[in-house]
Amino acid sequence: MPVIYRDEIGIVSVTLTDDELGRTIDFCDGYAYFTAGDQDYRIKISALVQIQR
For residue 7, how many other CB atoms are within 10 A of its CB? Predict the structure, then answer.
């Protein structure tokens, strides 16, 4: 599942895997939290462009 967001350089696409951690995006206090590979992400909701299923 690709998550596309803006950062200070441009547009970034991160693909979440189909394992247990990769299926979850949590939202709290204005941020989206998810794990892709071995990296944890914390992205401002205002920076999200698209979440594809």
Answer: 10
* pLDDT tens digits along 20-37: 566 789 999 999 999 888
User: Is the CB of residue 41 less than 8 Å from the CB of residue 51?
Assistant: no
Q: Could you give the CA distance from residue 1 to residue 40 in angstroms, rounded to a whole number?
A: 15
**What is the value of pTM for the model shown?**
0.84
Polymer length in residues for the chain: 53
Rounded to an integer, the average pLDDT of 6-19 is 90
Quote the tokens at residue 25.
């995006």
Token digits of residue 52: 């594809």
Sheet of 31-36, strands arranged across: 26-28, 31-36, 39-44
The single-letter code of the amino acid at 20 is E
